[in-house]
Design brief:
This protein is of the alpha/beta class and 247 residues long. The protein has two domains: 129 residues, 3-Layer(aba) Sandwich (Rossmann fold); 107 residues, Dihydrodipicolinate Reductase, domain 2 (2-Layer Sandwich), CATH 3.30.360. The chain contains seven helices and eleven strands. A six-stranded parallel beta sheet has the order 2-1-3-4-5-11, with helices on both faces. A five-stranded mixed beta sheet has the order 7-8-6-9-10. Strand 9 and strand 10 form a beta hairpin. The protein is elongated and about 55 Å long. 38% of the residues are buried.
Length: 247
């Protein structure tokens, strides 16, 4: 039986994790922690799952690593600097494993994988991500990861920047540029989590779209992470790809 602790247990995602892990035959939720609660009960857990806030996740992660807990992180906001900091902390805890995933939806992971495969064949590539109005960060972690994968694929294929003849534009009209890829963020009530990757070539456009219509869509990936984190190499693993066999 895997003893699971949840950070952000009363939030939208954290409460969903509590329900999913509590219903799994091989898991039990032994600690459900939120703002203002002591973290000490997490020390009895095999795996701690963090779905909190970009402003809180680093302190939580540092505490878990120092306490020798394996961690599965779904909180957004992990740029290269934060990943490097997590790696430094893990250097002092050689037996700890941390899985940080930009997205736990199996469909979203496959969408990113397919985008990287396709990017080398098209002259242009842009990303549009759409989320609920309460999301704290923009662009999303999924969009940032997708842009990074597209950029790496284009670079390996010897492709230059996407063509763009824009001379004048209202600030932000062309979105943010991440690793040379334009990324556009939409925040709208009624949405959950959605992303389109637009790939353009000569006389054709390929659109890859993924829609999470309910937060339950993330739970199979979260449970996979909980079950699989102990089998990962010690240290930091970024993305669910290796556990899905698509890395």
């Amino acid at each position: 039986m895997i003893k699971v602790g949840v950070l952000g247990a009363r939030g939208r995602m954290g409460s969903e994790v509590c329900r999913a892990a509590g219903a799994a035959a091989d898991m039990e939720v032994t600690a459900a922690v939120d703002v203002g609660d002591p973290r000490d009960p997490l020390g009895e857990c095999d795996v701690v799952v963090d779905f909190t806030h970009p402003g809180a996740v680093m302190d939580n992660l540092r505490w878990c690593i120092a306490s020798g807990r394996n961690v599965v992180v779904g909180t957004s906001g992990f740029d290269d600097a934060r990943l490097a900091t997590a790696g430094e902390w893990l250097g002092q805890a050689p037996d700890v494993r941390v899985l940080i995933a930009p997205n736990f939806s199996v469909g979203a992971v496959l969408m990113m994988h397919f985008a990287a495969q396709a990017a080398r064949f098209f002259e242009s590539a842009e990303v549009i991500e759409l989320h609920h109005a309460a999301k704290a960060d923009a662009p999303s972690g999924t969009a940032s990861r997708t842009a990074s994968l597209i950029s790496a694929a284009r670079s390996a294929a010897g492709l230059g920047p996407s063509p763009d003849a824009t001379v004048t534009a209202v600030d932000g009209a062309r979105g943010a540029v991440l690793n040379g890829v334009h990324v556009h963020s939409v925040r709208l009530s009624g949405l959950v989590a959605h992303q389109e990757v637009l790939l353009g070539g000569h006389g054709e456009v390929l659109t890859l779209r993924h829609d999470s219509l309910d937060r339950a869509s993330f739970m199979p990936g979260v449970l996979l992470g909980i079950r699989g984190v102990a089998s990962l190499p010690a240290g930091l693993t970024f993305g669910l790809d290796s556990l899905l066999g698509v890395d």
